[in-house]
């Protein structure tokens, strides 16, 4: 069972916490982690790209010149791809890029990503992050005290002041327990979580 330090918002160590091995100490499955990232990026694609083939562009009904005797290469239509205004050879068409992963695979991938952060000592637990008012400067000071940049901050539900306070900080993203995903865990250098959030993650994913 992994044991990590718990810090307060001043960046001082105030205790330790044992992390559940069922979530933060699993065997890392790189294949599933890769699949989860590709899945998320693919599902985010709009798939609305479209260009016209030679059968869809207008014009070009008649042969531009006779087949033989002109000295030019033979041409059948001015809408062929080699002509200006012609169609595109293998034109992209609207399509759905998304694919599905089952629940077990998604959970295993997320556990692998969280375990990797713990092993890299990039998982920071804070006793609590509470703000009486919405203030970006206060959130920035917490990150400075923890000596962290480019962080994914996992907060318990209902912590709206902290969420809004973090919105304008570059390279910082907040997430609720039900919105954590493998891509964000890997994208950000450090994962910061409150003790309440860690308890909830263990309850949901263990």
| Radius of gyration over all CA atoms, rounded | 27 Å
Percent strand equals 5-15%
- Strand-pairing-aware structural class: alpha/beta
Shape verdict = elongated
Largest sheet: 6 strands, mixed
Tell me the strand order in the biggest sheet.
2-1-3-6-4-5
Helix/strand order, N-terminal first: EEHHHEHEHEHEH
Mean pLDDT: 92
| Count of DSSP strands | 6
Euclidean distance between termini CA atoms: 13 Å
Low-confidence stretches: none
Give the fraction of residues assigned to helices.
25-40%
Count of alpha/pi helices: 7
Describe what this molecule looks like in 3D.
The protein has seven helices and six strands; from the N terminus they run ββαααβαβαβαβα. The model has no long low-confidence stretch (mean pLDDT 92). The protein starts with a strand and ends with a helix. It is 34% helix and 14% strand. The longest helix has 17 residues, at 103-119. It is elongated. α2 (30-44) crosses α3 and α4 (136-146) packs across α5 (160-166). With 206 residues, it is α/β, with parallel strands linked by helices. The chain has helices at residues 21-24, 30-44, 103-119, 136-146, 160-166, 182-187, 195-205; strands at 3-7, 13-18, 123-126, 151-154, 172-175, 190-194. A six-stranded mixed sheet has the order 2-1-3-6-4-5. A hairpin with a 5-residue loop joins β1 and β2 (13-18). One of its GO terms (cellular component) is ribosome. Residues 44-85 are annotated as: Disordered. Part of the 50S ribosomal subunit. Belongs to the universal ribosomal protein uL4 family.
């Amino acid at each position: 069972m992994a044991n990590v330090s718990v810090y307060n918002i001043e960046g001082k160590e105030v205790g330790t916490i044992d992390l559940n091995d069922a979530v933060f100490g699993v065997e890392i499955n790189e294949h599933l982690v890769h699949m989860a990232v590709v899945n998320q990026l693919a599902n985010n694609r709009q798939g609305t790209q479209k260009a016209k083939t030679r059968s869809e562009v207008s014009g070009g009904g008649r042969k531009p010149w006779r087949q033989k005797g002109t000295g030019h290469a033979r041409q059948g239509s001015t809408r062929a791809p080699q002509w200006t205004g012609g169609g595109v050879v293998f034109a992209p068409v609207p399509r759905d890029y998304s694919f599905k992963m089952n629940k077990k695979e998604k959970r295993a991938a997320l556990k692998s990503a969280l375990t990797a952060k713990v092993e890299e000592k990039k998982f920071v637990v804070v006793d609590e992050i509470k703000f009486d008012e919405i203030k970006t400067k206060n959130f920035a000071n917490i990150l400075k005290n923890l000596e962290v940049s480019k962080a994914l901050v996992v907060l318990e539900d209902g912590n709206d002041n902290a969420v809004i306070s973090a919105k304008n900080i570059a390279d910082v993203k907040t997430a609720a327990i039900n919105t954590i995903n493998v891509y964000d865990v890997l994208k950000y250098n450090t994962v910061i979580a409150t003790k309440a959030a860690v308890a909830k993650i263990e309850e949901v994913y263990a």
